# Entry
Amino acid sequence: MTRAMRMMEESVGVCDGIIYVLDARCPASSYNKNLKKTFASRPVLYVLNKCDLADGKTDGFVKLIREKGGACIKLNAVNANSRRDIAGAISLLIAEKQQKSLSKGYNRIFRFMVCGVPNTGKSTVINLLSREKRAATGDKAGVTRGKQWIRCDGFELLDTPGTTPPAFENQKLAVRLAFVGSLNDDILDIDDIALALLAELAQKYPQNIMERYGIEVGEPLGMLEGVCRRRGFMLRGGDFDYERAERAVIDDFRKGRIGKVTLDDLSDCEGLEF
# Structure
């Protein structure tokens, strides 16, 4: 992460603006405040990506970020029809600078850095704008390793590795990054993550749990055992196959099978500068 931050600091000087991709299910959790000073005075477009996996609360976050002075849109980057929305927002971001350039008879190519924590869909956003698969994508953290410039219609995009805060000051927000796959699963305790996810979903979206798994909402371990029974995740001797159930619940959540979910609340954005 330190290397990624250094890479961005070295590249921001040649960029005209920033496209900051956040996960619409957890905009506050996926916001790295350490990037703010890296952007310097560059205009920033905040993109709440994966809005198709979030519920109606996304509009409230878009409104809040705009009220705080940031340009912001919600986006489903895997939908080709979304290209017009983000392309228009990018044009507005540098409209004044572009007009000044044209008034001097200089029609130059504008450059934008695309950044955010891992697995928010930065590369998918780039592929949407470029109309083809130019950047590597994946459903886990750490797919993009180095920087690469990608030419689009009238501008260039710099794809960067995902960056997460060096220290998590708020553990509640940090664990949500684990839920959505922004942290490397290989370094996490899947037992703790799955149980914490079930606990949060039971509190905020109990109906989703009941409809997906056909179980009663209660304490996390009991719900996990209910998933084992309903799905037939059993070991020899009749023991529960907890690991298989844990991975199923996490995968179901990440792929939207549990329904549209927003983990963060507007109050989680208090103190964040957009």
